[in-house]
Specification:
Elements lengths: L5 H26 L4 E4 L7 E7 L25 E18 L11 H33 L5 E3 L8 H8 L11 E4 L1 H13 L14 E2 L2 E5 L6 E2 L5 E7 L4 E4 L5 E7 L6 E14 L2 E3 L1 H4 L5 H4 L5 E3 L9 E7 L3
Parallel strand pairs: 1-10, 4-15, 5-7
Antiparallel strand pairs: 2-3, 3-12, 5-9, 6-7, 8-9, 9-15, 10-12, 11-12, 13-14
Helix pairs in contact: 1-2
């Protein structure tokens, strides 16, 4: 591979990565039943702000047709604002030696596909882990939608049902549950002990717990080390968590001298926005381009809707040691 090919090689990686990521996103959105939505719609600037009218249900009142007239306090028509925040990520630098890559010239498409797939998978994993971190943090900061049984037991179907109950008559809106592999197998074990049927339909295996789709991922936000160690299950409504990916992927390949052999590095920069239904990013406290520790700070997510039933969902916390 000649050094003059490097720029073309970088552009090929960028294009194939975006195409691969789009394909993965489409499959994931279908699998999550639309509760976690990864989109190709980016936004300019540091924040995505969307205004909407606040619910007016509180304006309803009872009237006595035979009573005396009296003044009523008006309900003001006001707007509320959803705020998402843009997050920046990077990949690499990945270092290699051109002299060791002569095989690329035999089939460069194969090498490009391999690098691009790894890059696409890394970006998607970052998007999923980050938006789940935001969802867990925002929800856990709202005690009204948290069922914490970690002081006495682990995650069970009873605990999950108690979490769903936090949504009252809107509990049917919860359609998916995000949990780690260990929690999923704990629940499967409990169900098998009770002779409950979890698996259906021929060659397709579906984990159906309490009538909800279960998304299994060992995202760091779903586990908290401590005394006790805690498992967390995030139960979500449609469009609960949204990632805005503008596909602004920038890749660069550079070749340098100075070592025993010529070295080449590949590096990528990318951004995406995260949004949590019912919770707005606190621009003043959270600031711009937040790191994970800032995203994981509960006070940086402000509930902007009146009813908890109009938020992303509920959080169930159990002991991982029970």
């Amino acid at each position: 591979m000649s050094l003059s090919d490097m720029k073309v090689y970088a552009e090929e990686i960028s294009g194939v990565t975006i195409e691969t990521l789009d394909q993965m996103v489409e499959k994931f959105n279908q699998a999550s039943a639309g509760t976690i939505v990864l989109t190709g719609q980016g936004f300019e600037g540091d924040f995505l702000k969307q205004s909407m009218f606040q619910a007016l249900h509180s304006a309803q009142r009872r009237v006595n047709r035979y009573g005396a007239q009296g003044a009523e306090t008006p309900t003001d028509l006001t707007q509320i604002e959803n705020v998402g925040v843009k997050v920046a990520g990077g990949f690499g630098p990945v270092r290699f030696e051109p002299s060791q890559l002569s095989w690329i010239m035999k089939n460069p498409a194969q090498a490009i596909e391999a690098i691009s797939r790894n890059l696409a998978e890394s970006i998607m994993q970052d998007q999923l882990n980050t938006v789940l971190l935001a969802g867990v943090t925002a929800t856990e900061n709202n005690a009204n939608v948290v069922n914490d049984v970690s002081g006495s037991t682990g995650i069970t179907q009873v605990a999950l049902n108690g979490g769903h109950a936090k949504f009252g008559d809107h509990s049917q809106d919860i359609v998916s549950q995000v949990m780690t592999g260990s929690v999923a197998h704990r629940l499967i074990g409990n169900a098998l002990a009770n002779s409950a049927q979890l698996f259906t339909a021929g060659s397709v295996q579906v984990i159906d717990i309490l009538g909800k789709i279960s998304i299994i991922t060992d995202a760091p936000a779903l586990y908290e080390a401590g005394t006790p160690n805690k498992d967390k299950v995030l139960c979500l409504v449609p469009n609960a968590l949204v990632v805005n990916d503008g596909s602004d992927l920038i890749t660069n390949i550079e070749t340098t001298n100075g070592q025993t052999r010529i070295e080449t590095t590949m590096q990528a920069d990318y951004t995406f926005g995260i949004n949590v239904k019912g919770y707005a990013w606190d621009v003043a406290n959270g600031g711009k381009s937040p790191v994970d520790a800032t995203i994981a700070t509960g006070s940086n997510w402000d509930k902007y809707v009146t009813s908890d039933k109009h938020t992303a969902g509920v959080l169930v916390i159990g002991s991982a040691d029970a």
